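[agent] plan:
  1. take the single chain provided in the ticket
  2. run structure prediction with default settings
  3. attach structure tokens to the ticket
  4. add a short note for the reviewer (M.T.)
[agent] executing step 1
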Amino acid sequence: MTTPLTTGGLYLPMVGAGASITTGVSLKNTGEKLWGMDLKIPGMFFFIGGWLLAIYAFFLRYSGQSTPFNLPALLIAAPVMGIVGAAMLMNMKMKEGLEIPIFLPITFVASWLIFVGAIAFSGPKPDPAWLIVLPFIAAFNVFFSMMWLLPKEREAKVADGLGMPMFFIAFLLLARYMGRS
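[agent] step 2 finished; step 3 output follows
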């Protein structure tokens, strides 16, 4: 069974969120490293816009309401603010050549775990039951790509390598989970 927002078991707003976030990061990185252009503003527009779409997708899917002033939206908005804030501050510190304080990666990881936990444990139980692991596999993809692979790529002067597709795959996993009937 599909709804107007699902096709083939994928929840389209979450796919759009992942595409927008990935586009924002890629625009900024590619603009700086390959084209010598400052695309920070359009990159931030796509990045933040994608996260806002992720919040919207969550409360559309799980609350059925059209207002963000409800508990399910708060469950997702708080960790999203942690993810966005930590990611932007870590990027700023890296760009300035400063050491990243340990609380930023901890905030990033904890926020992602709360984010995927809210997706996994909100709404109806998945059928089959093993699908509940998809959001956590998505989180692992993010941690591996953002905390290990992308820093190695930056050291090697690679604008966007395997880290960005892995990040987008994380959103495809979340979309698959959210698109279940």
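[agent] step 4 note for reviewer: The CA atoms of residues 107 and 167 lie 18 Å apart.
[agent] ticket updated
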